[in-house]
């Protein structure tokens, strides 16, 4: 199972600087590798139609739907209260250090930095704090069994600069989950390129220093 990595864009049509599909398409042109469709206040038909518009913009399986219904796709991102749906190959969860990890493939951790999208939401974990939180909790495969190492995590919240993107990569994040910096950008393709490029460059530096990371990268 391929899990999200690199630049992951979260949608928010209310804060988008232009039509949502156009903003997302520009971010993908700039280097976004995955998209999490939020918009949970929309009706089922509207949300399904929006998913159908976004899905062709990405490689197969790269559109993740927030909530337990994948809307005809194969990936969901759950809140702490959402039940795990049956038969969905890729399941992520918003994690805060207490929820069980045996039923998901990746988590988002937030806020890594303070964020304008959710003023007052914090305190900020910082990249090192987020990594420490993940590393304290062993991950078990679905259905129980032996722990299989730390779960892949995405840094969410306030990742709005190349420097911050690089810090998250250095801390071990598999990707950066970005909402405001992309949605509100006058040029979402350029912002996506800056964030995705900085994150990827930092991951390469980390792999160059870590023989185990080089071996893993070669196996993928």
Automatic annotation (TrEMBL):
It comes from the Bacteria. Signal peptide: none annotated. Residues 102-182 form the Thiamine phosphate synthase/TenI domain. Pathway: Cofactor biosynthesis; thiamine diphosphate biosynthesis. One of its GO terms (biological process) is thiamine biosynthetic process. The keyword Metal-binding does not apply. GO terms for cellular component: cytoplasm. InterPro entries: Aldolase_TIM, ThiamineP_synth_sf, ThiamineP_synth_TenI. The keyword Transferase does not apply. Keywords: Thiamine biosynthesis. One of its GO terms (molecular function) is thiamine-phosphate diphosphorylase activity. Condenses 4-methyl-5-(beta-hydroxyethyl)thiazole monophosphate (THZ-P) and 2-methyl-4-amino-5-hydroxymethyl pyrimidine pyrophosphate (HMP-PP) to form thiamine monophosphate (TMP). This is Thiamine-phosphate pyrophosphorylase. It comes from Actinoplanes lutulentus.
């Amino acid at each position: 199972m391929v899990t999200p990595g690199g630049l992951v864009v979260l949608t928010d049509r209310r804060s988008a600087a232009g039509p949502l599909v156009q903003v997302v398409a520009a971010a993908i042109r700039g280097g976004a590798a995955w998209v999490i469709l939020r918009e949970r206040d929309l009706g089922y038909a509207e949300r399904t139609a929006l998913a159908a518009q976004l899905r062709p913009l990405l490689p197969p399986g790269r559109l993740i739907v927030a909530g337990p219904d994948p809307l005809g796709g194969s990936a969901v991102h759950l809140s702490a209260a959402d039940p795990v749906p049956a038969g969905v190959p890729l399941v992520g969860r918003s994690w805060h250090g207490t929820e069980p990890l045996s039923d998901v493939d990746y988590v988002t951790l937030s806020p890594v930095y303070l964020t304008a999208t959710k003023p007052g939401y914090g305190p900020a974990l910082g990249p090192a704090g987020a990594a420490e939180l993940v590393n304290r909790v062993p991950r078990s495969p679905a259905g129980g069994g032996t722990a299989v190492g730390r779960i892949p995590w995405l840094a969410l919240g306030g990742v709005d600069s190349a420097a911050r993107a690089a810090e998250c990569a250095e801390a071990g994040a598999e990707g950066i989950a970005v909402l405001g910096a992309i949605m509100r950008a006058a040029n979402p393709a350029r912002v996506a390129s800056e964030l995705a490029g900085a994150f990827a460059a930092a991951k390469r530096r980390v792999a160059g220093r870590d023989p185990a990371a080089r071996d893993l990268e070669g196996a993928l």
